[in-house]
TrEMBL record:
Protein name: Putative MFS family arabinose efflux permease
Membrane topology listed for this record: Multi-pass membrane protein
GO cellular component, one term: plasma membrane
GO MF terms, alphabetically ordered: symporter activity
Family assignment from sequence similarity: Belongs to the major facilitator superfamily. Metabolite:H+ Symporter (MHS) family (TC 2.A.1.6) family.
Organism the protein comes from: Bradyrhizobium macuxiense
Transport is among the record's keywords: yes
Gene3D superfamilies reported for this sequence: MFS general substrate transporter like domains
Record keywords, A-Z: Cell membrane, Membrane, Symport, Transmembrane, Transmembrane helix, Transport
A Pfam family of this chain: MFS_1
Amino acid sequence: MPDIASREFDVKRAAFAATIGNMLEFYDFITYSFFATEIGHTFFPAQSEYGSLMLSLATFGAGFLTRPIGGIVLGIFSDRVGRRPAMLLSFALMGGAILTIALTPSYAAIGIVAPVVVILARMVQGFALGGEVGPTTAYLIEIAAPRNRGLVVAWQPASQEIAATVGALVGVILSSTMAPDMLQAYGWRVAFLLGAVCLPFGIWMRRTLPETVSHGEHVAGQVESSSHLALARRHLRVIVLAVMILASGTISTYVTQYMTTYAKNTLHVSPSLAFTVSLVSNGLQIIGAVLGGWLADRLGRKPIMIWPQLVVLVLTYPAFLWIVRDPGAWSLLFGFGILSFIGSLPFTAFYAAFTEALPQNIRGGVFATIYAVAIATFGGTAQLVVTWLLHVTGDPLAPSWYLLLAAAVGIVAMSLMPETAPVKTGEK
């Protein structure tokens, strides 16, 4: 096995192998939100369009219920057994769930069994994804040289955005080449199966990863018992702030992913334009995530967290006002694109800061658990909350209210996070 301490391995290849698995898992998880309307019609027939969509989104939310369990189980597993076994297990579970959803017959064909199977598959997906992010982020921090940690860790959120971009691209192609009835009948299944085709490659890539957790030696980050109390207090503060920041980022991410459905159902634009907006927005978030990591290595974690978040807070309502008043291609692409790009900058810096603040022997488990709890609480409900707000108020600006609240909470917590960047702390 390659020696992590002496860097006798290709960091770029290892980072790619870790994050391509992460990307494939997020592709299938996010694809569900893109095709929420079509999946609702397939598995959750209801008396109204609103009822069918809400049942579909509730099933999307079911995947978040098991995320904390997956975060705890697979996160601790990664700390005790290793990062690579945990990442392989989460990937295999996700693959089985993907195939199950893609191949389950409709409600019209097998009745109540169809939604039950889909809900169970979503719960398995949630368990797998809950245990994915913590070990992967810990792994990226551990293979990176201190001066490049932000940039290497940037591929965690960037891989998620790559997944969303590919999902949106698939949506654009399918919605442009298929009639609406074909898209509803089986087009969304094609999108899922395209992700499943990549599963063997992802498993092979992850099997080649070098391990970063050594159980025969003193684990970096452990401390003497006399300092446990002070360390616990410090970590508790960081963990609380991390939950607040993750809540902010999660709401922003999942409301953004919901914009495909929002554009189709609320603004009544064509499906192809709706998917194009998601494609452009997610593509810009890839650039923003990588740029955020690069800047965080050079300027510090906190400046890259705080200033872009402040800009998002200022621009969110005007951008939505423009989009709602003139829901054309230019306003949608530019408005959502700018918010997506600027909003993606702070969270790479946060990923690096939070992971660096945790000792290695608890890093995977704590990050996975906190991430999964925040995602389950706020990500699993974000799209339901937005749909409900739109329904009860009838105001197409309702998503901006939720985003503003999330951005405000995020900037307060970011301003209180400790600075961990080697360029600021002097670590080499």
